[in-house]
Amino acid sequence: MGIIKISEELHEELRKASSVMSRSINSQAEFWIKMGMLAELHPQLSFNQIMADLMQSANVSAANIATTEENNDA
Question: Residue 50 contacts by C-beta under 8 Å, 6 or more apart in sequence?
Fold first, then answer.
């Protein structure tokens, strides 16, 4: 673990984004860094494609969520 110096303006944007995304400021920064790294490594992919690949690699399935929501509506 290390310390990264960033501008006050970027820190404020991190703070605001972290509250919207229900993440800590550090988790939000880590997410943005990871996504930026993946975007640089795979410039042909969109953000949504990168996220879909990450979800698929973690075996996340929206099918289970849709089924649960449909059952709650009944």
Answer: 35, 38, 39, 42
What does each of the 74 residues of the chain score in pLDDT, given as a tens digit? Answer: 788 899 999 999 999 999 999 999 999 999 999 999 999 999 999 999 999 999 999 998 878 776 655 666 65
**In Å, what is the CA distance from 52 to each residue of 3, 4, 6, 43, 49?**
30, 29, 29, 15, 5
- Reduced to 3 states, what is the DSSP secondary structure of residue 61? coil
Which pTM does this prediction carry? 0.75
Residue with the two structure tokens 């042909």: 44
Give every CB contact of residue 7 below 8 A, 6+ residues apart in sequence: none
Residue showing tokens 């709650």? 72
